[in-house]
Amino acid sequence: MSVLKSFELSGKTAIVTGAKRGIGRGMAEALAQAGADIVGVSASLETSGSAVGDAVEKLGRTFTAYQCDFSDRAAVKAFAAQLESDGVKPDILVNNAGTIKRKPAAEHPDEWWDEVIEVNLSAQFILSREIGRGMVERGSGKIIFTASLLTFQGGITVPGYAASKGGIGQLTKALANEWASKGVNVNAIAPGYIATDNTQALQDDPDRSKSILERIPAGRWGRPEDFAGPAVFLASTASDYVNGEILVVDGGWMGR
After folding, report:
1. Beta strands per DSSP E along the chain
2. If you average pLDDT over each of 43-47, 74-78, 206-210, which comes out highest?
3. With 80 as the cut, is the pLDDT of residue 36 above it?
4. Does 166 map to a domain?
5. Do residues 189 and 143 make contact, with C-beta atoms less than 8 angstroms apart?
6. How far apart are CA 221 and CA 12, in angstroms?
7. Res 1: pLDDT
8. Is this model's pTM higher than 0.85 or not?
9. Separation of alpha carbons 161 and 154, rounded Å
10. Summary count for the chain: helices (H), strands (E)
C-alpha cells in the first residue's frame, strides 16, 4: 500500500462524540474528507440540518445524528445499545465530548466535580468498553480520545477537569495495553489552547490571553482545523503500529 493510500478511510464508519462544534466538528469533517461516513453525537445535536451534518454530506459521505447526555450514565448505556440495535459497527470511535467547570478548588462543589468526571472520564470508558468489545471481536478498530494539556499539567481553577483529563491519559494506555494485540489501536490527541467554547473565558480575559499567547511558540490560539491531520492519521492504517500514545497538538506549548 502506498503512503497516501494508507491515510484513506473509504468504506469506514466513524463515531465522533461532541461533533456539533469545535474540535469535534473539525475532526468529523476531516474524517469525512478522508472517506469515512460519520455518526455524530452530542447532547444537543440536531437530528437533521446541523452544520456538521451538512458539511459531511457536502463531502459525499453519510451523516447520522444521535443525541446523548454524557452526564447521564443510563443514557450513555442506552446510546450504546441503540447503536447495536441500529446495526452500527464503527471502525473508528472518537471520544471527544467533554465539559469544564471553573472555580477555585476550595470552592469547587461536589456536583461540579461529579458532572465533569462523569462526562469526561466515566462516560468515555463506558462507551469505549461497549464499542471496543465489538472491535476486539472483529479484530480491528481505532479509538481516539481527546486528552488535554491538563493530562500533563494541573491547570488553574479546574480541578475536576484536570483530574478527568489525567485519567484519560491513563485510560488510553490501559486500553492500548489490552487491545493492541487484538488489532485495536487506542491513542489520544491532547489539544493545547484552542479557540473554542471551552476556552472562551480565557480568550475574553486580556491578561490570561496575553500570558497564554506569550508561551505558545506558534504565536496563536489553535483552531479546530489543526486537528484534521492528527485525527486522520490516528484513524487510518498509517498509525497501525501506534498504541497508547498521546499526540500533543499545542503550537509548541509543552516544549517551553
Report:
1. 13-17, 37-42, 63-67, 92-95, 141-146, 184-191, 246-249
2. 74-78
3. yes
4. yes
5. no
6. 31
7. 73
8. yes
9. 9
10. 9, 7
Please report the pLDDT score of residue 73 as a whole number.
97
Residue 11: per-residue pLDDT: 97
Indicate which residues carry an active-site annotation. Answer: 161
CATH value at residue 213: 3.40.50.720
Average pLDDT, the chain: 96
Total structural domains in the chain?
A: 1
Residue 254, domain member (yes or no): no
Over the stretch 189-238, which tens digit does the pLDDT of each residue have?
999 999 887 788 888 888 888 999 999 999 999 999 999 999 999 999 99
Residue listed under C-alpha cell 465530548: 97
- 118 HSE (CA, 13 A, CB side): 15
Residue 21 to residue 212: CA distance in whole angstroms: 23
Residue 108 lies in a domain: yes
Grid cell for residue 93 = 470511535
Q: Is residue 121 part of a domain?
A: yes
Looking at this protein, which amino acid is placed at residue 145?
F
- Give 119's DSSP letter: I
* Euclidean distance between CA atoms 196 and 204, whole angstroms: 12
pLDDT score recorded for residue 85: 97
Residue 114's domain comprises: 5-249
Contacts of 140 (CB under 8 A, 6+ apart): 91, 183, 184
Query: What digits encode the pLDDT tens for the residues 15-24?
Result: 999 999 999 9
Assess whether pLDDT exceeds 80 at residue 44.
yes
Place of cell 499539567: 153
User: In angstroms, rounded to a whole number, what is the distance separating the alpha carbons of residues 180 and 194?
Assistant: 30
Q: Walk across the sheet containing 63-67 and list its strands.
A: 63-67, 37-42, 13-17, 92-95, 141-146, 184-191, 246-249
Under a CB-based contact definition with an 8 Å cutoff, are residues 57 and 32 in contact?
no
